[in-house]
Amino acid sequence: MKNKQISIFIENKEGKLKKAIEVLSKEKIxxxxxxxADTTKFGILRLIVSDNEKAKNIxxxxxxxxxxxxxxxxEVPDKPDGLNTILxxxxxxxxxxxxxxxxxxxxxxxxxxxxxxxxxxxxxxVLKENNANILTPExxxxx
Length: 143
Known about the structure:
Number of helices: 5
Largest sheet: 7 strands, antiparallel
CATH superfamily of the largest domain: VC0802-like
Shape: globular
CATH class of the largest domain: Alpha Beta
Order of helices and strands: EHEEHEHEEHEH
Structural class: alpha+beta
């Protein structure tokens, strides 16, 4: 169960992040999770949102460079070894995690982890074999 994430390339200057968020807010697009990776000049804002297509279109209309990526979203037990266990399943099969970020579920007491994997299809297979709860885009709307 793959999910879509949007990545927005933002100049690392005062007000640029707010502008991107404001554009989404005005269109009633809910941000479920976010991560920012930055350099001195630019940043990449990664988002899981309520409506990818609408978000992508409105951001592009406002002169943002936007890319869509496939990620997986996994429910992780909220305990000390929860994430370690999930990462162990992937590591045992030599599946590289390119990046990871998380948010907290409003619905359950679990952590929700967004992962970009080098081999997403094999990663899904391995996690399913180990009974990990991989969330669909519809599931995320409830979390």
